[in-house]
Amino acid sequence: MVGDIGEKIKELxxxxxxxxxxxxxxxxxSASATTFLESVERASxxxxxxxxxxxxxxxxxxxxxxxxxxxxxxxxxxxxxxLGIQLEVIREQSVETPKSGEVSxxxxxxxxxxxxxxxxxxxxxxxxxxxxxxxxxxxxxxxRLLMAxxxxxxxxVSIGKISADRQNLSIIGLLGExxxxxxxxxxxxxxxxxxxxxxxxxxxDEELFEKxxxxxxxxxxGIKCSGSREFLFAREIIFPDSFNLSPGxxxxxVHIAILSDTHCGxxxxxxxxxxxxxxxxNSEDPIAKKIEFLFFVGDNVDGVGIFPSQExxxxxxxxxxxxxxxxxxxxxxxxxxxxxxxxxxxxxxRVAEPQPPVGKYYAAPxxxxxxxxxxxxxxxxxxxxxxxxxxxxxxxxxxIHTFINEVKELRELKAHTCPAKAVKHMLKRRHLAPTHSxxxxxxxxxxxxxxxxxxxDVLCTGEVHRLxxxxxxxxxxxxxxxxxxxxxxxxxxGNIPIPCKVPIINLKTREVSVLDFEKxxxxxxxGIVKTSEVKNEA
Length: 538
Fold this sequence. Notes:
By secondary structure, this protein is α/β, with parallel strands linked by helices. About 30% of the residues lie in helices and about 20% in strands.
């Protein structure tokens, strides 16, 4: 396809920005890519195709998209979302998000649950003011959390009210700039709703300097410092942080299981092994009989057009076939078990987070399964039994890679091999994707849906295809296994997946055990145990 597109671009005499050229290569076929370029060139009478031109000719782009089939529309939408262009004509074929917080009774009078969906509406054209409003809302949400920290309650002032006199004070700010000086000190520029100010961190204060170096752009933190409105010197940095001081427990032996990245439909999909898991669910095993809830944390199918030449890796070539295969597995789950399924980047929904539930157009069979609940990414599920509550936060985890690439500690640990350590940073910052560029997202001016407003008992993710279990201040962290063999991309970056593992959590003891369904597996990989108790650090 690269050669075909290159020849057509040359024939038309066009020049494309690199991002535009890379995006065109992700179109479903060379014919639609050529039609798109011709439409833009003809309407604009411009031979240099830039992102700014596409924004200007948005109506032309929308008319082109309308001519595509539903399946190609879904692929092209993802291309434009990655470019940061939201098209009004591209609408999710997704289920309308139900109302959050309604209590649903469990099967046979057992545990109940409440679901708190992330808001996913995009009813209007997005503007810069929407993103500004999203950051304002995020700041206010995290500011409230930080104001409750006793360390910040003395001498807390707004940046705009700092006087010209030298003093000891505390501020809460969003990090907008970060740079190292010639003297190897660190200058951080923070802003709040009243103004901005620079804060210096000296390199000879090793502990503080290391903590400051860990800060990412757009982090909201508290800073204890000294100085005047001209300049401040940091003495302590305080993250919003997550503390589960009263971990949820049930009085009965209720179990939940967590799966992710099943990738149904690909040639590398472990269908036989996944089938064994569903056979086990229907067995007489005493643990299987105690499972009341299943969580599927994204990338449930392999998708179509997710990356160039993906069709060569697919066994099932359409999304509808892939979701039918997924449904054939889920129909085998006993009706006494309630399932929650959120999407990931490979599912038939938009890439931008929060992602809506998987819709009917491609996944109609899923909507016919009575004990399956389709939820947003992210979603908070509160399981209840009597007066006991156990909170599970589902997030597929697209931002994990950014954390690993940007945080020094994680880079040095090569944290793709221990991804739960990256998830700890989400809890520490109380945000699933704090840096503006870490994920594609839809802004919300009322409340940032990626803020972790309530501390969960479990934060479960997928994305990295490696089972890892950890604990952060009383929250159990589980990064999910996968049901797919190592891909060429994973091989190229040295990522070795840990497939076919299912973590089981006993909600009475908070003990985590791992079931291994890998074919011919003689032993569990290093770092994974058959049964382990996750102790609370709080």
